[in-house]
Design a protein that fits this description.
Radius of gyration: 16 Å
Number of helices: 6
Strand content: 15-25%
CATH architecture: 3-Layer(aba) Sandwich
CATH superfamily: Peptidase C15, pyroglutamyl peptidase I-like
Number of domains: 1
Helix content: 25-40%
Oligomer: single chain
Amino acid sequence: MTKQTKTELKTVLLTGFEPFGGESINPSWQAVKQLHGQSINDHQVECVELPCEFGRSLEHLYQAIEKHQPSLVLCIGQAGGRSHISIERIAINIDDARIADNAGNQPVDITIIDDAPAAYFAKLPIKTMYKGLLEAGIPVEVSNTAGTYVCNHVMFGLLDYIARHFGENEESIQGGFIHIPFLPEQAVHHSGAPSMSQTTVVAALKLLIKNGLSSGPDLKVAAGTTH
């Protein structure tokens, strides 16, 4: 990927996933596609649906980055059972699939990228994004695990791509991963599972994009956990 200046990078890339795990829809793609073509902070939003497959999901992601040359990449995924918008802080270099992906692959304790670090931190102003949702009254948390399934696979692959193509270059693109809860029409089939309306999720994504594009140092506000 050719390095570009920030003035030339005027696109935000949003990705969501196809349904998996027996679900007929995936709330990430249902929400993401609502923002396709919209303008936020002088950036046009481009949206891509990723396959819920190890390996192939990254191929699609990298192709989309090359095509759209974004200044911000936010990958969105379903986290059934979570009640908040989860801004992921870290991705780890391991695939450990509890269930098979949509192609029948089920890697267990497999390194995602052999010559990469054990983990990458999100390249996002996560606390600024967190506070923005708090102030809007949207349930939000900073999460310290993106799991070990395709979501973590995509987050790690994204951050490795950024590191390899840009290093510590301050002109680098921003990137990270956001988990969202079930939609109500999914939660009704999972006794006791929390949900969040698509309207709320879309509003949250708009704020996350806006604050993800903010310049300057990230805020330092407490958002940690005790366990």
